[in-house]
Amino acid sequence: MIQQLPVLRVCISCRKTFDRKDLLKITKDNNQGIMLQKGMGRSAYICKSKKCYSDSKIKKKLQKALKTSLEPEFVEIFEKEIASYNNYPH
Ligand SMILES: [Zn+2]
To answer: Which site in 1, 20, 21, 73 is 20 to 30 Å from 13, CA atoms measured?
Structure first.
């Protein structure tokens, strides 16, 4: 039996380490631009604590981490995604 070790990544906001599957992944895909939870390329991770994803500077931090500017289409998808987290009992 192969033991699956968790892949750890750092939240770009609080800088804490989390299991990758508990993080929101934002990838600057080489062909398709910025994507949520998919894509290949430079990635940034945000944990699902309200303090982080609703941080007023989170988009700036994302742009810095991905070394790109966020497309309005992505910002719309991102905001829809984090709005759904508000339903979680944090
Ligand atoms: Zn965080």
So the answer is: 73
Q: What is the domain partition of the chain in residue ranges? A: 8-83
- The full DSSP string for 5-43 is PPPEEEBTTT--EEEGGGEEEEEEETTTEEEES--SEEE
- CA–centroid distance, residue 72 to ligand 1 (Å): 23
pLDDT tens profile 41-86: 999 999 999 999 999 999 999 999 999 999 999 999 999 999 988 7
Distance from Cα 70 to the centre of ligand 1, integer Å: 19
State CA 18 to chain mean position distance.
12
Q: Give the environment of ion ligand 1: residues with CB less than 5 A.
A: 11, 13-14, 47, 52
Residue pLDDT, tens place only, 23-33:
999 999 999 99
pTM to 2 decimal places: 0.87
CATH class of 8-83: alpha beta
